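Hi R.,

Here's the input for the copper (II) ion complex you asked about:
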Amino acid sequence: MTHSLNYGRRQFLQYSAFGAAAALFPELLLANPKSARSSPTPSFKPDVEIEFSAREVFVPILNNGSKTKVQKYFAKLLKGPENTVQSIEDNYLGPTLTLAKGQKVRIYFDNNLSEHSIMHWHGMHVPQKSDGHPMYSIEPGERFVYEYEVLNNAGTSFYHSHAHELTGSQVYFGLAGLLKVTDEEEKALGLPTGEYDLPLVIQDKRFNSHSQLQYVHGMHDRMMGFLGDTILVNGKPNAEFSVKSRAYRFRVLNGSSSRIYKLGWDDGTPLTAIGSALSLLEKPETKPYIMLGPSERFDLWLDFSGRPVGSKLVLYSLPFSGAMPPMFERMHRGRGRQGGMGMMGRMDMMTSDLGQGDKFPIATFNVTEKVSDSPKLPVQLARLKRLTEKDVDNADSPLPIAITERHMRPLVNGRPFSLDEVMEIEKVKLGSIKKIKIYHSHAEHQQHEMSSQSNNHDMEGMGHDSMGGRGSGMGMMDEMGGGMMGGMMMAMAHPIHLHGQQFQVLSRKEGHVNREDYETVRHGFIDVGRKDTVLVMPGEEVEIIKPFQDFKGLFLYHCHNLEHEDLGMMRNFYVY
Ligand code: C2O
Ligand code: CU
Ligand code: CU
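And here is the predicted structure with copper (II) ion in place:
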């Protein structure tokens, strides 16, 4: 086992050498001169123990006899209930984990890749050191040990790579898997289990003519986010499922880099959600369609009772607009396989991309067997304590998460990512419950930034133009992104994710949305239940309530458009 300085610490030293940091937290990094954690804590008595590793392998994805090079998680259960780890053969997806509330879990992660990596338990409320912060990225051959108690309620989460600046690429090449949490309250509801509790992990990929995965290349690709032209469900294209004429629970996870899905059934059947990521809902919610941003999860209920054997139902992503910058959208409109009318035929020949907001099928469900033993949809699901403005200590001064897009860089709160630097506005007292306002900050903000910059007045760091300044020669797009109009010109949808404790959406306001575009998504938001990611459309303003309890330390908040995250649209909260 190696005891070399871990990745974060090396990076830290490197960054410090440039004197860039504003407020460092040496106790978090330097008090631990060797790897943050490479051996288990003797006093921690795990109920569940799992050995994970990640390595490069070839798996069949396309049904053409060829194999695709991927990065894959493998896991071996050392201790705990047998159903804890379910491996998926011939697939790039990592094993499905099932954890129960209250379990103490120890996980070993061996990095057998040829690059640094670290695992993150997305949605899980765990101590900083077990959260997989990119500062803990370990080198090939190194081991990291996670220890945490499952505090979460029943829900659907996932785990994935959070490697420093390689998250987008590693998740794309396969480093992700589903994580279910169960609890007693959920068990008492008698929801569908076993084969009737079906995960639908949706991802989009691009393959070259040798069936190998292709990821982003240029800066433009990164700024707009990666969009693939092949939709995979649970790691396979053209997904079809045989179902019985009874009720199912579908755990839908958007595991894509940046694609947003507008889920809808082809025959107009409304969607019924029973869970939103980190909790069951209080009662089922019915929607004509559901917007699902990257890393969002919804548990859907669908009852096939009464549907004849031989019938089928197709889950679609329905058309919508306004998630991409207006200019970009105009250029790409109607280019998708089944989107639009192909008005821009010549464009179609230049690329086969499936645009953001195009219509396409996701999965087909064939009713193949008649049964009569279906559970009924419960009227009441979880009992949640609903947080209100009265519970927060900052109702009049919400913590900001300002979204900015300029100079080809999307940012949060005006500053790029740094492993261990926080601004005043990012310091939160342990035990407090905060209101947080997520909003798009365009022209006014940029002007403010520019003036504060020229005054060299570092207003809580909001004035930094970190990306090389206005003369950085990014060309035409930069010009559009930087001017008065720039903000709105470059506005796009961002799935904003916060590590640590689950939050609740307090309000979603239309702000400066484009009316026409907004009509295509308006009815698709489920803002009840407990979540860790919220999709914020251009012009929208979303307020959330988030408790910061149990653990001190650095907890990330970032855009879960993974290209944006890697570009630095990520910051830390420091809970002290
Ligand atoms: Cu799903 Cu910080 O990540
Ligand atoms: Cu996360
Ligand atoms: Cu983003």
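One thing worth noting: The domain at 7-187 is CATH 2.60.40.420 (Immunoglobulin-like).

Cheers,
M.
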